[in-house]
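re: that chain from earlier
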Amino acid sequence: MELRHVESTEERAHYAGLVFSHREAILDAWRALLKLDPDDPSTSFYSDQLDVSILALANWFLGTDFGESTMALRWRGIKPSDEMTVGAIQAMSVLPVAVRQVLGDHDEVDSGQLTFETSQFTTELCGRLLTVAHIEMNQSGWDDAANEIQKRYESARVDRVRRLGVLIEIARAVSTSRDRNSLFDQVRAAIQSLESNDFTEISLVDEQTGTLRCEFLHAGGERRRDLENTPYDVGLAIEVQRTGIPLVVSDYQAACRMRGIEPSAALSAAKQRAWMGAPMLQGDQVIGVIAISSELASYDQEESELLMAIARQTAVALDNLRLLDIQARHVAHLSAINRLAHEIADIRDEERLCVLASQLIHEYFGFGLVTLFCVSNEGTHLRMHARAPVSLSEEQETLVIPIGSGTVVG
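^ sequence. v structure.
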């Protein structure tokens, strides 16, 4: 079906309202498509231009001419150049894609028609830009601009596929891992495909002390077991634990100094490193932190959101492992009780029964020390009858505890 320019004032006002209400989301999608570097000082300037262009689109739906928009006022203050104009045209050509990404699944809009209208806006605007800048692009120039746009589309598509692959790998780890080590190793392998990461640290909160404990550390291409299983209260991970929100910095050492936090010794201070951390949450409770770092890459909002998704799924996997462990121990205890009952069923001698029972409880339940006491004939004392793995024959004297002494109440 051929799409035509919408003339209905009511429908155009509806489109304007959708663009206004989804302005921030469209801006985020547009910046992502253009791959603006958040650490580049010029990104703030470009973001402002993109923002006023979105407002110009909404006002265009309401009938406002480009020349009367805030966008036009901003652009008048910029010295024109061929390079900037071509760059603006390339950026504007991506706007319909950003609008479709944000509003494509909206229940109250025909996404095809809205995308068509946005393309009409950008076509008119680009034509005005070429006229004002007095640029005459030959076919080769247009081909170069088209190729640049196609590269950006393809790059964005590859990034989306890559991120989806990471989430699929994490989902597989969540469903297949049967212990923490294999889970953490699979999480690290999936995170490796994010960027050129050479550092992955997974820490859990100690339930007793509330401090972070490093459970998994991969740095410099190898597992650093020498630094694992150690509690710590330094580094930016403790800031993530405290706030419960992700943190992205372009210079780890500088970020630590700014916050008055001692940097982690696991990260070299010799070179500038980007760092990103995300909390693992169960409900509102932070149970751990996943942190990555790199000398070669910088992280953006999309990487932060992806790491947060990985942290959420890892938290789910850890909870699943906890429940599986509880279930396994419950089954093991039931089996141990059945075996214990079977072993002692035919024993009639009290001393032998106590000795064997203590040994079997130690063996089947895995307790470090098992001691059996029996009540004296008078009912006034508890007397030690058996002990495992240290037998009573190796003790100098048998322990007797008065019942009601404060130690044992009978």
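The longest strand covers residues 285-294.
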